[in-house]
Specification:
20 strands; alpha/beta; hydrolase; Aminopeptidase i, Domain 2; about 425 residues; M18 family aminopeptidase; EC 3.4.11.-; six-stranded antiparallel sheet; zinc; globular; Aminopeptidase
Length: about 425
């Protein structure tokens, strides 16, 4: 595989994954094509060395692994962690509004969305729908309306002459999405009725829509942009970019002595405290099950490492003062090792040195990021995973602009660079640093 083919696969993945559930479905499809075997948590497992496996949790998070040739307590696990969710506008349970001849849907803001970027976009809806079929059985379907069905229009500058000096956005009053227009005195169908009609048109037997988890998304497709197509622009680069990179590294790495694993969690953008988030028990439960007993688990963890892959802030050419003068990562200059003295990132000197070595072995450049000392630092699943598992962690990521915007920008080379570094990581037989003599 070369960079152009890798990026084209990435663009297809991003386009097909408007929600965490769709992202997990796409990853399952790619794993099936690569010969990985689906597991169910409640069943007995007969695992074989060298074979790949995966299991999903509520269809919103996924753990995939290839069992190593050596026992886990002798070789450990090479883990990559990422997250499937992105900031967005989620539809409320009772969303239907009708005001001044306009039908709207009320929304909640999920995560730290950059709200100004959601205005004047062609928006569609995707997510999960739970419904009763003709026999009264509760069923679930994934939907993606694909076509634009909503818009969040800006207020004209003529009605707010101070707009270019900054506008405060009230999530309750300014974000209901326009769904359509109706002649005076008429009422249209409610969202649940429209969802039922859509599912019936798709061949589902639906008697009633009971509930849903839906979000709006921008219908503009991902693209390679720039004079020489050196940039990737897309929604949800944070953090489906890392999910795809980690998945490709797992699929294309050869079976090794150590077990190789990818964990893609939901709910990172809202703190990870859920059954399908990094603070939930799924990954620890799996590792304990693979280890067999407590002593083997402790030995496994002592020889393991997790690469927490979540995008980093590239230096913005129009706002260079927002970065520390020595720590301004650039696009297309390699993956970024993220440091924070207050453990907002879990990187240690040891794990940073190890990851820099993987990059050197892969022949790719590496960069460093530290937030300005007078600014607050974001966080990742890295510190959570380190705390939950007691494993060594390094926080890394592809540099990007516009994090949490409806459309983000990354370098076309950087995803490939991180993929190569992760392939080297997954092939490591040992993760040791020799003591001084």
């Amino acid at each position: 595989m070369q960079t152009p083919a890798f990026n084209q696969g990435l663009l297809r993945f991003l386009q097909a994954a408007p929600t965490p559930s769709h992202a997990v479905l796409q990853m399952q499809t790619l794993l099936d094509q690569a010969g990985f075997v689906a597991l169910e948590a409640e069943e007995d497992w007969d695992l074989k060395a060298g074979q790949g496996y995966y299991l999903s949790h509520s269809g919103r998070s996924l753990i995939a692994f290839r069992l190593g040739q050596a026992p886990l307590d002798q070789a450990g696990v090479r883990m990559v962690g990422a997250h499937t969710d992105s900031p967005c506008l989620k539809v409320k349970p009772l969303p239907d509004l009708q005001r001044h001849g306009v039908k709207q849907l009320g929304v909640e803001v999920y995560g730290g969305a950059l709200l100004s970027t959601w205005f004047d976009r062609d928006l569609s809806l995707a997510g999960e729908v739970h419904y009763l079929n003709a026999n009264g059985e509760l069923c679930q379907a994934l939907i993606n309306l694909v076509e634009p069905v909503g818009v969040l229009p800006s207020l004209a500058i003529h009605l707010n002459r101070e707009a270019n000096k900054g506008v405060e956005i009230n999530p309750q009053t300014h974000l209901p999405v326009v769904w359509g227009c109706l002649p005076k005195g008429q009422e249209g169908l409610a969202l649940r009725q429209l969802l039922a009609h859509h599912l019936l048109g798709e061949g589902y037997e639906v008697s009633e829509v009971v509930d849903y988890d839906l979000c709006f998304y921008d219908t503009q497709p991902p693209a390679l942009t720039g004079w020489q197509q050196e940039l990737i622009t897309s929604a949800r680069l944070d953090n489906l970019l890392s999910c795809y990179i980690g998945l490709q590294a797992l699929i294309h790495s050869e079976a090794a002595q150590a077990t190789q694993l990818l964990a893609c969690h939901d709910h990172e953008e809202v703190g990870s405290a859920s059954a399908v988030g990094a603070e939930g028990p799924a990954l620890e439960n799996l590792l304990r099950r693979l280890a067999g007993d407590q002593l083997a688990y402790q030995r496994l963890m002592a020889q393991s490492m997790l690469v927490s892959a979540d995008n980093a802030h590239a230096i913005h050419p129009n706002y260079p003062d927002r970065h520390d003068e020595k720590h301004g990562p650039q696009l297309n200059a390699g993956p970024v090792i993220k440091h924070n003295a207050n453990q907002r990132y879990a990187t240690s000197s040891e794990t940073a040195a190890l990851f820099a070595g993987f990059c050197r072995e892969a022949g790719v450049p590496v960069q460093r990021f530290v937030v300005r000392s007078d600014m607050a630092c974001g966080s990742t699943i890295g510190p959570i995973s380190a705390t939950q598992l007691g494993v060594r962690v390094v926080d890394v990521g592809v540099p990007q602009w516009g994090m949490h915007s409806i459309r983000e920008t990354a370098g076309a080379l950087d995803a490939w660079y991180l993929y190569r570094a992760l392939c080297v990581f997954m092939q490591q037989k040992e993760l040791k640093i020799q003591p001084s003599v």
